[in-house]
Automatic annotation (TrEMBL):
PROSITE patterns: HTH_ARSR_2 (PS50987). The keyword Repeat does not apply. This is HTH arsR-type domain-containing protein. Keywords: DNA-binding, Transcription, Transcription regulation. GO terms for molecular function: DNA binding; DNA-binding transcription factor activity. It comes from bioreactor metagenome. Residues 9-112 form the HTH arsR-type domain. Pfam families: HTH_5 (PF01022).
Length: 112
């Protein structure tokens, strides 16, 4: 594969990660992600996230929607309760691919 093809793949990788990068670029959403990681697989309700982050319920709901729309967080409904959790196969995993491709290109250009 030539460099032009590799750069086009990298551009595509960046494009597919734009929404995720925007979502996790906010410090409040980073805090919510950290809290959700700590909750394990069972997930958390908005009230639980609110108490751990000291954010208002509307703020938590707003940021959860952005994380959900970006494919990072999902929701499990049990009766009338919603449990938010990190999606294990989330688009966050696309960041690994992006970073790997960047590293390969940097390493290959360093050899030239």
């Amino acid at each position: 594969m030539n460099n032009n093809d590799r750069f086009n793949i990298l551009k595509s990788d960046f494009k597919s990660c734009t929404q995720v990068l925007t979502a996790i670029g906010d410090e409040t959403r980073q805090l919510i992600v950290i809290v959700l990681i700590g909750s394990g697989c069972s997930g958390m309700r908005v009230g639980e996230i609110t108490s751990q982050t000291h954010l208002s319920r509307p703020a938590v709901s707003h940021h959860l929607k952005i994380l959900k729309d970006a494919g990072i967080v999902d929701v499990r409904k049990v009766a009338t309760m919603n449990y938010y959790y990190l999606e294990p196969s989330s688009k966050l995993m696309n960041l690994k691919k992006l970073i790997n491709n960047i590293e390969e290109l940097i390493n290959d250009h360093g050899k030239e």
